Amino acid sequence: MPQSIKTITVEQLKTLMDTKADFQLIDVREQKEKAFADIGGELIPMGVAVLQANKISRDKQVVVYCRSGNRSGRIIAELQHRYGFANLYNLSGGILAWADRIDRSVRKY
Hints:
Elements: E1 6-8, H1 10-18, E2 23-27, H2 31-36, E3 42-43, H3 46-49, E4 61-65, H4 70-83, E5 88-91, H5 94-101
Parallel strand pairs: 1-5, 2-3, 2-4, 4-5
């Protein structure tokens, strides 16, 4: 039975950042997207994320994001299925929600 995908809101992510929590933030968009709008995640593009699973922590919370939450959700499902990750959280609404609700200076595309 497939494992469900856990989610985190942009407000919850901001709290993690503000409290300097020990977590990993991963951006699965492409380099040009990160250059346009960035919230500080480590870039591991969707096309290589499964191959670079060794870069993803297994012993702390990992928040994965993309533009809207679709690609990051698909990557999380694949990583959970292939490698049994249980600590991955999809940023609900992605960087668009971050731009709308947390930091209006982040450009939307």
